[in-house]
């Protein structure tokens, strides 16, 4: 009986150690690495999108500014 109890305890310990090495745990290095890599990929994609967005916004505002100054120049001439 006692040996069976010890075996059960050892089994629990093994299961526990397996769980602690599982990548599904939040503080597991490989999970952190995965999350970090995923975040890097996301942020790089988002950064690219933001840069594109900013450039298009700048272009649009520059175009509007150019058109306005051109119209002001024209209206000043007449």
Automatic annotation (TrEMBL):
Per the record, which residues fall in region Disordered? Answer: 1-24
The annotated regions of Basic and acidic residues compositional bias extend over 12-24
Put simply, this protein is called Uncharacterized protein
Organism of provenance: Pristionchus mayeri
Its organism's taxonomic lineage begins at: Eukaryota, Metazoa, Ecdysozoa, Nematoda, Chromadorea
């Amino acid at each position: 009986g006692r040996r069976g109890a010890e075996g059960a305890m050892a089994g629990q310990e093994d299961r526990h150690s397996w769980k602690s090495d599982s990548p599904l745990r939040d503080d597991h290095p490989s999970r952190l690495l995965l999350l970090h890599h995923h975040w890097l990929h996301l942020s790089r994609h988002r950064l690219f999108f933001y840069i594109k967005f900013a450039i298009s916004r700048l272009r649009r505002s520059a175009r509007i500014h150019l058109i306005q100054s051109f119209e002001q120049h024209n209206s000043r001439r007449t």
